[in-house]
Design brief:
Layout lengths: L2 H11 L20 E6 L4 E7 L5 E5 L10 H7 L5 E5 L15 H14 L6 E6 L1 H12 L4 E7 L6 H6 L2 H6 L4 H7 L8 H10 L7 H9 L1 H8 L10 E6 L8 H19 L4 E6 L6 H4 L1 H15 L2
Parallel strand pairs: 3-4, 3-5, 5-6, 6-7, 7-8
Antiparallel strand pairs: 1-2, 2-4
Helix pairs in contact: 1-8, 2-13, 3-4, 4-10, 8-9
Length: 307
């Protein structure tokens, strides 16, 4: 089975990672953050910060996105504390990074970035879509430096396994080819040529193609990494799920949307200190469609857990 033949069911597996619908422009907030390219050891990552105070809020974008996706949230939070958005390796104005592009590697690079940018802990991290995987990995690696997590329509580490069990996936993949691809770890060995059709279907911009291809290849391994997340009782978490359905097409789409919402609720329940919120007026691009909701959730988490 070729990459192109696999593309349709694969998109459902990484539903969380695609900006599925265009977001209307919310009202502007404040001023623009000034971006800097920081050397993290022979490579440079792009980061932009606004405001002063602690904890430092760090914003991680979706697969195929960029730091600009957080601009309204960042401006709205700048009066409360220091807030920074950045481009992961291979995206925007950041240099490509070494593989495999798993969430644990990305989290380690982020910690080097905050150190080199002279941003001391603690950090409150917000991750949109695949960015949620990365900030969870950060909390796993650096629990004593993590003040809290906000996960916006972030993947569930068991979403692939659960989607394979649904009637919708059985209809899309009746021979189990996609599940074999996932379980056998072939996905991580596919070449950039194999994976480019996936990246283009996800709307990847040319500047982000290398980043998105690497993260697609590492997606299954990133999911496996998070299954052993040990700090569920320590880190306070807010999970925000989209409330406006983004898939249309009848019963099949309804099943996938219902499964997604169920997974989001389950993700929240896995943390001892959690809050679950539905962004009623948003599709998948919550930071752009309902920035005020995100701003309020982060502010509340800061107030509840600030020393």
């Amino acid at each position: 089975m070729t990459a192109r033949q696999l593309s349709v069911p694969f998109l459902f597996l990484i539903l969380a990672n695609r900006p599925l619908d265009a977001a209307s422009e919310p009202p502007p907030y404040g001023t623009e953050a000034v971006a800097r390219r920081i050397d993290i050891g022979g490579r440079y990552l792009n980061i932009a910060c606004l405001g002063q105070g602690r904890p430092t809020v760090v914003l991680d974008h979706a697969l195929g996105g960029s730091s600009r996706d957080w601009r309204h949230v960042q401006r709205g939070l700048a009066a409360t504390t220091r807030v920074c958005s950045y481009d992961r390796a291979g995206y925007g104005h950041s240099d490509p990074g070494p593989g495999p592009r798993t969430s644990s590697r990305i989290a380690s690079e982020l910690r080097t970035l905050t150190d080199r940018a002279e941003l001391p802990p603690p950090y409150l991290l917000a991750g949109h879509s695949f960015g949620g995987y990365n900030v969870r990995a950060f909390a796993d690696l650096f629990p004593d430096e993590t003040a809290g997590l906000v996960l916006l329509d972030s993947p569930h580490e068991e979403q692939a396994d659960r989607f394979f069990q649904t009637e919708a996936m059985r209809r899309l993949d009746p021979h189990g080819s996609l599940q074999y691809l996932w379980d056998s770890e072939i996905l991580g060995s596919l070449s950039a040529v194999d994976l480019e059709p996936f990246a283009r279907l996800l709307g990847a911009r040319s500047a982000s193609m290398q980043g998105i291809i690497g993260e697609i290849a590492g997606f299954a391994e990133s999911s496996r990494e998070l299954r052993s997340f040990p700090n569920r009782d320590k880190v306070p978490v807010v999970v925000i799920a989209h409330g406006r359905r983004v898939l249309t097409g009848g019963a099949l789409s309804d099943q996938l949307e219902d499964q997604w919402l169920s997974l989001q609720k389950d993700l929240a329940s896995r943390f001892k200190h959690h809050r679950f919120i539905v962004a009623e007026h948003s599709g998948h691009t919550i930071p752009l469609e309902q920035p005020d909701l995100v701003i309020d959730a982060i502010k509340r988490l800061i107030l509840e857990h600030r020393p």
